[in-house]
Amino acid sequence: MTLVLNAVLFGLGLSVLLGSLVLGSLRLDPTMWAHSYPPDIREKFGPTSQRSQGKIVLVGLVVYASVAAGIWLALRQVPTLPGGDLTASQIFLMVWLVFNVFNLVDWLVIDRTGL
């Protein structure tokens, strides 16, 4: 497996995990993400409640921990790949590709379908 394929696979895995977390949190409390909605929808919801703000912090910690774990797991695989010396350029490429695969999936699936 090459470095690029490894990054794409981890990026897709991260996309599924983070997409599930975000959609699951919307099921838990749809108002917790109201601060990131367009202005007209934000006006409809009003200010975010204290309870929703607490949930945002909890979900945010889980999301950031998942991102860190995903990147760490992807980087742990680099030395096992052909020519996989863990150099600064390979670390940068791996992290950049994982995040951009996630961004692409987010744009194509969540942002464009309105989920």
Tell me what the structure shows:
It is built from four helices and no strands. It is mainly alpha-helical and 115 residues long. The chain has one domain. Helix 1 runs antiparallel to helix 3 and helix 1 crosses helix 4. The longest helix is centred in the middle third of the chain and has 28 residues, at 50-77. The radius of gyration is 17 Å and the shape is elongated. The two termini are 33 Å apart. The model has no long low-confidence stretch (mean pLDDT 83).
Mean pLDDT: 83
Structural class: mainly alpha
The amount of helix comes to: over 70%
- List the domain count as a whole number: 1
Q: What is the first-to-last residue Cα distance?
A: 33 Å
The helix count comes to 4
Q: How many strands appear in the DSSP assignment?
A: 0
Largest beta-sheet characterization = none
Rg, alpha carbons: 17 Å
Shape: elongated
- What is the N-to-C order of secondary-structure elements (H for helix, E for strand)? HHHH
Uncertain spans? none
Strand content: under 5%
